[in-house]
Write a structure and sequence with these properties.
Oligomer: single chain
Radius of gyration: 19 Å
Shape: globular
Structural class: alpha/beta
Order of helices and strands: EEEHEHEHHEHHHHHHEHEHHH
Organism: Streptomyces griseorubens
GO molecular function, one term: hydrolase activity
Keywords: Hydrolase
Helix content: 25-40%
Protein name: Alpha/beta hydrolase
Length: 312
Amino acid sequence: MSRPTPVTTGRYAPPAPARELTATSADGAPIHVEVHGPEGAPAVVLAHGWTCSTAFWAAQIGELAADHRVIAYDQRGHGRTPASPACSTDALADDLEAVLTATLAPGERAVIAGHSMGGMTVMAASTRPAFREHAAAVLLCSTGSTRLVPESTVLPLRPGRVRTWITGHILGSRAPLGPVTPAARRILKYATMGPASAPDMVEACARIVHACPRTVRHAWSHVLATLDLDAAVRELNVPAEIVVGTADRLTPPVHARALAAALPDCRGVTELPGVGHMTPVEEPDLVTTRIRDLVTAHVSAPQPSVPAEESA
């Protein structure tokens, strides 16, 4: 069965990158990287979530690439990055370090935005040398550091062991998602998006999620189910902003509030009424504005070099 391709029209159609490259992670794993926008512009790095790909950031890339250098990459097994038997938060941190080292000049700073598992990637990398060298500020969208399965409200049941057990089995299922049908769109919308999500948003997300191989989805579900990054959050010593939807069933606002309390330098939490888990797609302009504002506040654009004859 062929995998769905991203949408090709509208604001959620992935823009063509200015260039592509492969970053090599610590264990030799190749990581697919795309660079958009003008060289020398302030840098933004985008890390997508579980079952997604660089296509998830299409709306942000389309807006930011006019005056930013936007670097997006596919997590292991997602998009155009091959699957790897190494699925762990350490591997996520290794891969982000490799991307930063491959795309940024020594000492160059960037805003790093992570959605869901991408936000967990940022947390996992908080003590890494390359992260500390290059991270100027971070945006954490719809994410959490621990207790993902117990806090999930995908199932309309009372919190407790029964809900946790059933939720874990659903999220960790090996079953194929199949083609993107009307029923599949309804299920995905219920589980991951707000009730007011427009059809083009649902279509874009469904195509991205259904393109993720089920073996990859299953492997990373175990990492998320046992996630414990609380200590790493306390080491995330850069300015951080948080965005979460009040209708997020996968990482409800309780996670955002816990992160805000633990982060050394939290600059604010934005709770979006009626918005679900897919905040960069459901509220693209707000997420783009948050990234842009962080760049303005914390990243200085490199100054163009002046030829010797002009500087004399």
